[in-house]
Design goal:
By secondary structure, the chain is α/β, with parallel strands linked by helices. The protein has two helices and eight strands. The longest helix has 12 residues.
Length: 133
């Protein structure tokens, strides 16, 4: 096992996420999850960034694949500041997707939903047990 004390600290810089429809996916991330599209390479790649500087690269599957199959537990997680922000995100999203009700889970408060086909999303925040309904 690698000694964590000697490990070089790294920050995740970007993720390339294959999607069936780049226009639909980019619009969803921009309109509902607050990312900003910063570049576009025709209909092959869209580059989006969040407020923290993380880059999400949306790409089309290769023609021979022609589809995207995500593993059952694969999901895209968004972390927000507090319980109120989770509730606000749920309020915005429940009109465009079928989202679970926010709940306390693993020391966080949040919810899951599917969008863009079968892609699973999570929105969560630190949970203050006293404020959870």
């Amino acid at each position: 096992m690698h000694d964590a004390c000697n490990a070089v600290r790294m920050n995740l810089n970007h993720l390339s996420l294959p999607v069936r429809d780049i226009d639909e996916a980019s619009a969803f991330f921009v309109e509902h999850l607050g990312l900003v599209e910063t570049d576009r390479k025709a209909d092959a790649i869209a580059i989006l960034e969040d407020a923290g500087g993380f880059t999400l690269v949306l790409s089309r599957p290769k023609p021979v694949e022609d589809r995207v199959d995500y593993p059952a537990t694969f999901h895209v997680g968004f972390f927000v500041d507090d319980v109120a922000a989770v509730d606000a995100a749920h309020g915005r999203l429940q009109h465009v997707v079928e989202a679970q009700a926010p709940r306390h889970m693993r020391g966080r408060y949040g919810f899951y939903f599917h969008a863009l086909g079968e892609l699973l999303f999570e929105v969560s925040a630190p949970a203050d047990v006293d404020t959870i309904r």
